[in-house]
Specification:
With 161 residues, this protein is α+β, with helices and mostly antiparallel strands. It has one domain: Rossmann fold. Strands 4-2-3-10-12-11 form a six-stranded mixed beta sheet. The chain has a four-stranded antiparallel beta sheet with strand order 1-5-6-9, with no helix packed on it. A two-stranded antiparallel sheet has the order 7-8. Strand 2 and strand 3 form a beta hairpin. The protein starts with a strand and ends in a 14-residue tail after the last helix.
């Protein structure tokens, strides 16, 4: 396991998929995260927050893992309300990087759909901020990126006779 690196980002898990949202302060990471969590809850899907604003990252056996810093696990800011608590997990593997960006690219090049974080190559989903597209468009981009991920590997249990 590598030494933790703390970055400015928000982490969540939707149906077993770890998602790391990156972007400048005030760009809407927390709001998009809350909308994704609420949408999953409405659909009856499992969803958890890791942490908002700061995430610790480690690499374990070539897998990027996000960890909630102890003081902020499960806490997220809802502007106009304050800090609220959401169901959370302490850590999760990262399957998708969501980068909130300042423009809408109509047809995204393949090389823009991958990124390297701490030496690990990961699928990337560029999402325009709310000054460019509305929240429904943002959520659709993330949901389609999740659908494009390879299937999760499941552990097989060896039966003994």
């Amino acid at each position: 396991m590598s030494n933790p690196v703390n970055i400015h980002s928000t982490g969540l898990v939707l149906n077993g998929r770890g998602i790391l949202l990156r972007g400048p302060s005030g760009v809407g990471k927390s709001l998009l995260t809350l909308e994704l969590l609420n949408d999953a809850e409405i659909r009856g899907q499992k969803a958890s927050l890791v942490a908002d604003d700061r995430i610790d990252l480690t690499v374990e056996n070539g897998v990027l893992i996000m960890h909630a810093p102890p003081a902020i696990g499960g806490l997220i800011e809802l502007r106009g309300r304050g800090i609220i608590k959401k169901p959370h997990v302490e850590s999760a593997p990262v399957h998708l990087i969501v980068d909130i960006i300042g423009k809408l690219v109509r047809l995204v090049e393949e090389d823009a759909l991958v990124t390297e974080v701490e030496g690990v190559m990961l699928p990337r989903c560029p999402v325009p901020n709310r000054s460019v597209v509305d929240s429904a468009h943002q959520q659709l981009l993330v949901q389609e990126a999740i659908k494009a991920l390879p299937p999760l590997k499941t552990r097989r249990v060896k039966k003994t006779a």
